[in-house]
């Protein structure tokens, strides 16, 4: 014989609003597709950006300083960061690590050895070792050592080799040669002077400055400086995503600048984020409409079978049984819709990843975990909203 | 009676004592208070297991009383107590469980689903509980006793009143109950069929140790009634 639900099927005709149910399901499918598309696109773009920019590293370093304006010229303290400003930078969500760039408070001159007849005034800066991209065993200094390890910016050597040397008929110098050249470094304050041998131990792409170890800087600033700890005018931060629009906005708002090249993806990212947000927004709106139509459908079915449902309840059918029966009509719809949306999207993703791969851009051919998670969440949301509706309307007439 | 948790689906082990306290239907108030009645505006206790006959001339609120007892109408003053508690104090799920396992009903207007066959109408009630009280063979046997075997596969729409009444009787008897509430259950049956139905009902009640409350217009001797009331 037939089951109880089988008999209920003959009494509670869910066929009455078939078009409505179809519309609701279609709406749900499109809404789900848009929403998941937005989430997947977001993930894909993140993947594209990061795999391009930092092939190995998951973090980037930004040297930040205040923009020098005409009004500030001649007032060096105006380019210094106050303790409050520093605290503010430290507490931003994009700041993973923070370091000061310490400048020298003494005079430095450098002279090339032997025949090169090279002599120049210069400066030093130091940053915490964690921020330096040159890993070298020689990068250390102990009190009493007469040799100072120095890191040069890569750009500096390039400027010399391709700008200066060519035009002045001077020899171009390789990195190895520079590393082999001992420089005569003289630091002084007034009449007190001390000579050191400077040795280039590496070239940095990250920090455009002449770097010496932090403990040397501390020692020398104490011995040759004015004893006061100067406020830093350049700081360095470690951040996961230099194209983070929040970061770029923050720098802009505060009048800080940094290496613009590093943050150039920010604008693209913002445009993509806007488009993705708009798609997601439409997805949410459509989802709301789908829920509304579902709710109307439930109302219609229950209203059209009001007498039958009331008789069922009179005969002893529990509201719980009615709810279970009604929800059983809907649940397969959500699940099929969810799976269909995921399948379509998986196809799209696979196809897009193939096309992008021919342009040397790599995104995963599979959907992200977030997309699956979102699909489950949407199905759950629709289920809960419909259950509440069924509960409400069944409760009203039973 | 200790109250058991009102978890839906739980089998109530109760005696299902039904008490009326000064029950007066609001629409019939004046009419009811003018004449004397054994039921209206009195204290009445229906003893579980008793066969109760309520004789009720037309217009005295017979069907209204049945609906109050089965808790599908509430327009009264006074109280209907089930196991010492107001009907209103039970929630919908518990009431559903009681209607599945404690109290059964035969309405005067029969209330057969027209979109189902006669057999499906009975089956609906039989499989409403997850562990059906009686087998399909038992249903066939009851149908045979009431001479309705030939209409079992007919749609509810095409059944005559007499056939509907017998289907409604069988439907009321496929579930467990402590009380069977009947509103003129033989009104559409000839004497022979009425007696067959009455015998079946009496047997089924005794098998369950259950009582019934039957309302009718006239006196009759179809059952060995324990109690008589005049409405």
Automatic annotation (TrEMBL), chain B:
GO MF terms held by the record: ATP binding; ATP hydrolysis activity
Pfam families per UniProt: ABC_tran (PF00005)
ABC transporter domain: residues covered: 18-231
Protein known as: ATP-binding cassette domain-containing protein
Domain of life: Bacteria
Source organism: Chitinophaga oryziterrae
Keywords carried by this UniProt record: ATP-binding, Nucleotide-binding, Translocase
């Amino acid at each position: 014989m037939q089951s109880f639900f089988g008999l209920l099927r003959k009494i509670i005709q869910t066929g009455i609003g078939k078009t409505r149910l179809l519309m609701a399901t279609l709406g749900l499918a499109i809404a789900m597709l848009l929403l998941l598309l937005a989430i997947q696109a977001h993930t894909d773009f993140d993947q594209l950006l990061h795999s391009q920019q930092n092939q190995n590293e998951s973090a980037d370093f930004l040297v930040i300083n205040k923009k020098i304006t005409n009004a500030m010229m001649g007032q060096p303290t105006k380019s210094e960061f106050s303790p409050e400003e520093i605290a503010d930078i430290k507490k931003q969500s994009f700041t993973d690590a923070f370091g000061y760039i310490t400048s020298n408070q003494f005079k430095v001159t450098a002279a090339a050895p032997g025949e090169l007849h090279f002599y120049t005034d210069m400066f030093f800066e130091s940053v915490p070792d964690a921020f330096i991209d040159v890993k070298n065993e020689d990068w250390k200094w102990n009190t009493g050592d007469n040799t100072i390890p120095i890191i040069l910016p890569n750009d500096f050597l390039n400027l010399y080799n391709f700008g200066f040397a060519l035009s002045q008929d001077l020899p171009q110098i390789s990195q190895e040669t520079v590393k082999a050249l001992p420089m005569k470094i003289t630091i002084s304050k007034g009449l007190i002077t001390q000579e050191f041998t400077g040795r280039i131990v590496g070239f940095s792409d990250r920090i455009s400055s002449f770097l010496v170890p932090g403990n040397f800087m501390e020692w020398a600033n104490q011995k040759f400086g004015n004893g006061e700890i100067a406020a830093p005018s350049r700081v360095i931060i470690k951040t996961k995503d230099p194209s983070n629009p929040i970061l770029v906005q923050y720098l802009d708002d505060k009048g800080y600048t940094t290496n613009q090249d590093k943050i150039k993806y920010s604008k693209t990212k913002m445009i993509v984020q806007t488009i993705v947000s708009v798609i997601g927004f439409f997805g949410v709106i459509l989802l709301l409409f789908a829920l509304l139509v579902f709710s109307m459908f439930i109302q219609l079915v229950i209203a059209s079978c009001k007498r039958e449902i009331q008789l069922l309840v009179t005969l002893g059918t529990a509201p719980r049984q009615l709810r279970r029966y009604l929800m059983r009509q809907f649940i397969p719809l959500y699940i099929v819709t969810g799976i269909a949306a995921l399948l379509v999207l998986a196809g799209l993703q696979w196809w897009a990843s193939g096309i992008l791969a021919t342009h040397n851009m790599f995104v995963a051919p599979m959907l992200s975990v977030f997309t699956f998670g979102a699909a489950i969440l949407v199905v759950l949301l629709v289920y809960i909203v419909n259950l509440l509706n069924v509960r409400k309307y069944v409760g009203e007439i039973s | 009676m200790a109250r058991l948790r009102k978890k839906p689906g739980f089998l109530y082990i109760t005696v299902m004592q039904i008490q009326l306290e000064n029950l007066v239907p609001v629409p019939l108030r004046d009419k009811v208070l003018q004449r004397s009645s054994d039921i209206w505006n009195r204290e009445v206790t229906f003893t579980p297991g008793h066969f109760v006959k309520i004789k009720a001339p037309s217009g005295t609120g017979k069907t209204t009383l049945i609906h109050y007892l089965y808790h599908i109408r509430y327009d009264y003053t006074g109280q209907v107590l089930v196991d010492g508690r107001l009907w209103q104090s039970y929630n919908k799920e518990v009431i559903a469980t009681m209607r599945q396992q404690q109290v059964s009903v035969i309405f005067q207007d029969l209330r057969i689903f027209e979109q189902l066959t006669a057999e499906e109408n009975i089956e609906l009630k039989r499989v409403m509980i997850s562990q059906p009280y009686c087998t399909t063979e038992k249903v066939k046997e009851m149908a045979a006793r009431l001479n309705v075997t030939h209409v079992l596969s007919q749609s509810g729409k095409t059944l005559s009143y007499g056939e509907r009444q017998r289907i409604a009787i069988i439907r009321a008897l496929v579930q467990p109950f402590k009380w069977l509430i009947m509103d003129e259950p033989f009104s559409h049956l000839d004497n022979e069929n009425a007696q067959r139905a009455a015998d079946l009902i009496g047997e089924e009640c005794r098998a369950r140790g259950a009582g019934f409350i039957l309302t009718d217009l006239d006196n009759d001797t179809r059952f060995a009634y324990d109690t008589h009331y005049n409405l």
